[in-house]
Design the sequence.
């Protein structure tokens, strides 16, 4: 919201909600804040690439799998799980910088703090799949550091690791 309110063009990729009326309200709210909304689905990758080509800041939720995408296997907090391949794939294909980020609520001053880490160094080394896996593992390590800063503020409302299902 801060980026959009300060005149920076922002696109956000969002997961559809089961209740379409609530989802439509959510989309309308984000648009009223000045954000372009891209719904997860078949056209999301193309729309995301176009947003980057237009110089927009693209915000992607990347700390969990959204929808039916297979994802990339990584080690995350000491256990194997899957994270989305999209952020690293887009960065490799478009040369856009990939910046891990988190927003924290600071109750002492009733404000939010955004932390943006340096861009992840991504280079094509061989097969795209191998490069995406390596980059996504690096992204997972960055998320671990961001989550450790305030673990109670990480909102994960679904199973994330295979052991969660046992």
Sequence:
């Amino acid at each position: 919201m801060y980026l959009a309110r300060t005149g920076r063009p922002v696109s956000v990729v969002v997961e559809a909600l089961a209740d379409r009326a609530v989802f439509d309200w959510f989309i309308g709210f984000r648009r009223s804040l000045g954000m372009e909304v891209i719904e997860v689905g078949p056209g999301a990758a193309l729309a995301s690439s176009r947003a980057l080509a237009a110089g927009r800041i693209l915000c992607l939720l990347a700390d969990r799998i959204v929808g039916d995408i297979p994802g990339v296997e990584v080690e995350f907090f000491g256990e194997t799980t899957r994270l989305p391949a999209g952020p690293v794939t887009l960065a490799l294909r478009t040369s856009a910088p990939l910046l891990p980020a988190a927003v924290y609520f600071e109750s002492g001053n009733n404000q939010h703090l955004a932390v943006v880490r340096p861009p992840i160094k991504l280079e094509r080394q061989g097969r795209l799949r191998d490069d995406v896996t390596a980059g996504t593992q690096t992204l997972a390590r960055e998320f671990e550091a961001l989550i450790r800063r305030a673990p109670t503020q990480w909102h994960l409302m679904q199973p994330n690791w295979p052991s969660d299902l046992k």
Observations:
- The chain has five helices and seven strands.
- The mean pLDDT is 92.
